Amino acid sequence: xxxxxxxxxxxxxxxxxxxxxxxxxxxxxxxxxxxxxxxxxxxxxxxxxxxxxxxxxxxxxxxxxxxxxxxxxxxxxxxxxxxxxxxxxxxxxxxxxxxxxxxxxxxxxxxxxxxxxxxxxxxxxxxxxxxxxxxxxxxxxxxxxxxxxxxxxxxxxxxxxxxxxxxxxxxxxxxxxxxxxxxxxxxxxxxxxxxxxxxxxxxxxxxxxxxxxxxxxxxxxxxxxxxxxxxxxxxxxxxxxxxxxxxxxxxxxxxxxxxxxxxxxxxxxxxxxxxxxxxxxxxxxxxxxxxxxxxxxxxxxxxxxxxxxxxxxxxxxxxxxxxxxxxxxxxxxxxxxxxxxxxxxxxxxxxxxxxxxxxxxxxxxxxxxxxxxxxxxxxxxxxxxxxxxxxxxxxxxxxxxxxxxxxxxxxxxxxxxxxxxxxxxxxxxxxxxxxxxxxxxxxxxxxxx
Length: 449
Known about the structure:
Blueprint: H1 2-8, H2 10-22, H3 33-46, E1 50-54, E2 63-68, E3 77-83, E4 104-105, E5 108-110, H4 118-135, E6 141-147, H5 157-163, H6 165-168, E7 172-174, E8 179-180, E9 187-189, E10 191-203, E11 209-210, H7 220-228, H8 252-260, H9 265-272, H10 284-292, E12 297-303, E13 313-314, E14 317-326, H11 332-345, E15 352-359, E16 362-363, H12 369-382, E17 386-388, E18 391-394, H13 397-404, E19 408-409, E20 414-415, E21 426-428, H14 429-448
Parallel strand pairs: 3-6, 3-7, 7-19, 8-20, 9-17, 10-18
Antiparallel strand pairs: 1-2, 2-6, 4-5, 5-21, 10-14, 10-15, 10-16, 11-13, 12-14
């Protein structure tokens, strides 16, 4: 019944997704955040839900809380976590259409947030609407937590969860996204890696000077480069003392799941225009790395003259930004201390280390009953689905698991090459349809078990 409603009213889903895309909501610029929060609340109320705008204090993006209490089954609660903020749209010149156009071309709808995360959000809203419009009730209690800071590290989500813990209490969480692979199989992720994001900086002289003085004045860029070379080897192994100390090996069950996960090496290399993987990884080593290897990645470096042409200058300061992906049991603060100790022991105590943010990793156990519920619904909706021990990316899943004590599972409509965070981001319309129907099945199956 609900799936037929979704099919009959699918054009409305697309129209409302276009509305959401056309409302910019770039958290990094604080652009359109309040307006988008209001639009999300309006769409949810139109679908039959009660909403509330939750706040911590002025200047912090609000959380939209939605709730529908079940008349028939008030003892089980499913929470949907999503976000309404998006990444910056730059570089503008690489977009084929305006970044917030919501333009449809064939089976794709384009625009920043079309996949991440407004497309995913609308599938959840419309699945719940299908129950309310067809039966006047939902099979179990439904809650929504929709934040506006996910793209800047969910910096206040832990505070929101603690302050409004009673409101958000639930038995299980459907996460804000989920990839779909090249063969149209949803990838059901049971966890996310953590993250330690730092900025290293070193200053030498009080101002930029003529480069002829490089025979006398130390160049801070070289200083940073030399320090960076001590952090990891050419194969990606992190060389900081005790970096892997708390990391557990995969269980036999984990290895079975990892081994079954598909990975098309040729199409991946073609999509990103690369010829080899780090450390020349092959086969199961690639999949194991994505799921469970910590990383040390330079995200950007800045110093001196970066414009066109030549300027013979010796810069006074150099800065590098690094993100370290973490796996379960790695504590961001403990890893930060290890990084600082490493630099000191290697003779780089003059390099300042500033932590931008940190997030611990989280995983739902493969044996949790919720895993079977989601897998069964996905198989019925898509024909086949893939279990994934952990996403290679990061989100605030640890905070949800810790505060709400509920299993979290990521499943959704995001085509694996949908260019999220890049120009020409798109969502596939066929996957939006399938995912909305899949959400209906998840709600029903969760309520009945």
